[in-house]
Amino acid sequence: MAGSEERVVAVIMVGGPTKGTRFRPLSLNVPKPLFPLAGQPMVHHPISACRRIPNLAQIYLIGFYEEREFALYVSSISNELRIPVRYLREDKPHGSAGGLYSFRDYIMEDSPSHIVLLNCDICSSFPLPDMLEAHKKYEGMGTLLVNKVSAESANQFGELVADPETNELLHYTEKPETFVSDLINCGVYIFTPNIFSAIEDVLKQKKDRANLRRVSSFEALQSATKALPADFVRLDQDILSPLAGKKELYTYQTLDFWEQIKTPGMSLRCSGLYLSQFRRTSPHLLASGDGKRTATIVGDVYIHPSAKVHPTSKIGPNVSISANARVGAGARLINCIILDDVEIMENAVVIHSIVGWKSSIGKWSRVQGEGDHNAKLGITILGEAVDVEDEVVVVNSIVLPNKTLNVSVQEEIIL
Amino acid sequence: MKALILVGGFGTRLRPLTLSFPKPLVDFANKPMILHQIEALKEVGVTEVVLAINYRPEVMINFLKDFEDKLGITITCSQETEPLGTAGPLALARDKLADGSGEPFFVLNSDVISEYPFAELIEFHKSHGGEATIMVTKVDEPSKYGVVVMEEATGRVDRFVEKPKIFVGNKINAGIYLLNPSVLDRIELRPTSIEKEVFPQIAADQKLYAMVLPGFWMDVGQPRDYITGLRLYLDSLRKKSAARLATGAHVVGNVLVHESAKIGEGCLIGPDVAIGPGCIVEDGVRLSRCTVMRGVRIKKHACISNSIIGWHSTVGQWARIENMTILGEDVHVCDEVYSNGGVVLPHKEIKSSILKPEIVM
Question: The dihedral of CA A14, A17, A18, A21: what is its sign?
């Protein structure tokens, strides 16, 4: 049967608690991959994209968070999608290629024909089935999802050059100082199992080099101690760069949305992108209402079934309201994420903001950001259990967990 | 009796409100400022009020014509063609003030809001037999003002000290005077100051007396003081005629609501709020420490504090107006906009938030 030859395994790199510090203060309470975007954990979006791949056998999450942090989510998503999802914990960071390699026995258990590898902190429509078809046609070892960005922003990413006819990856360089190309690496890959031999080669070279250094000069020894551990293999510099132009790697360009989710500000933007994707793919997840029996809903809005939203409130566009949140009479929410157990009281206003778990927003109070997703204080972020008292105004600020605000603040980080 | 009200010039400190109306006609506690004074003067038997004015007298005259009949009082203007200071206007209006009756006359600074205890002032003036009485008020920081040094027991004014560096007293000129017609003989028709030139002269002759003003006093010539003045005025109203203040579950503290204004459900109003004639305050609105002038509409769930909303303006749903925001006449703040200290000139539409105090031309 064809299915047995065509098995696919997906691997999602989720990172660990020492990574993603730019996502504070939200990552103080929850592993960043579980932070909700459009009402679903960040990692849920790539997982559901993987689910659309034909003959998917298994999904692995690889990272160095504690197992228990993912236990609950992994079991519930396995049940929901009816596909085994398993968390594999690295004892320490190995780089994305190194991490993949260290769990090669698990990954190869189902004898997959293809391995889908992606990073958790990107927001995309993940066109995996189409990309898989393209990969099969290219007949290379790997295919990268690529995206065209503005020339000014390209240097934050891996820049690459592809053959316009064959789509072969001709050149790859990570975060260059000078402009190379406006095509960038999206952090989504499809590999054949040969990737493991490629990683093995790199590991072997590194070991040889390390041995060589050991017998050479004192100076070399010094630099070796500063260098990355021998079993650390980066996908970009160690695999993609050397293999570019060798008819092993190909590119598949997405014309749909793609963003990196490094900061809380970007998570709000990405939440909006996923909500607008729901509008096309799963409109039943979006709320609707005209202010008669339910709240007035404007644009794309997600409201968890357990949340209580007063009919006189007005919600949207781009709002996601998590479990057990309560939104009082006459409240107004625009472009925001309201996390679990938050209480928004009567006539309060929340605009361009993220309101952390169990926080409360008093009557006629106002929590507002300017709306610039890239600015340091462009989106107002309230950490867990922040109480904004009645009539207080919080503008362009970040508030760490467990604070009470009884006077208005603007452009401040409150420890 | 007669009275002269020193109206003066453009009232620039109270812009943008004074771009629409001369300062004496700007509403304070639902009534043009000058009417507070004219009504109090009428109470003690003043029959003729002279307004010393150097800017747009026609607007004033047209407006006050109605009140002449209603109050049964004569209101005339004495227009300066050049600024005459605070004493020159008295000389200019000399013929109107000195009618041969020998009765003392009032002189008021138009910026000042107080309980206007004119009856006590008359009584005190008659009791001391001097030529002039000035009202003085106690201030916390006398070094900012001209201090009146007086004899505690009799009230006789000894001297004036302008912005004293060492403490000489804490009473300052409150801008309310009762003068014998003979004082007019001391004033020449030229730009001159009553505080700096005329009063020191009378004091030197030991004929100037000061009476400490009971109750509150506020110079409401600028927005911050206007808002403080409203609080003091409403406090005083609470003591004197509490029945004029609004009551109900939606009211906190002292609130004045014009009988023709409409307040929606689920609002919380007060403390220290004045809502003018014909205003519409929709459901779920929060108002505190603010003045909402004639014909304003505040839409649902808006929140306003420490601000002045000028005539016929609108404030959008879920808008937030605070921190000395002053909206001129006919300003429209769109839904969900936040104004933190915006000072907005008349006939503007505000579509995006004003995050820091600034002037919107």
Answer: positive
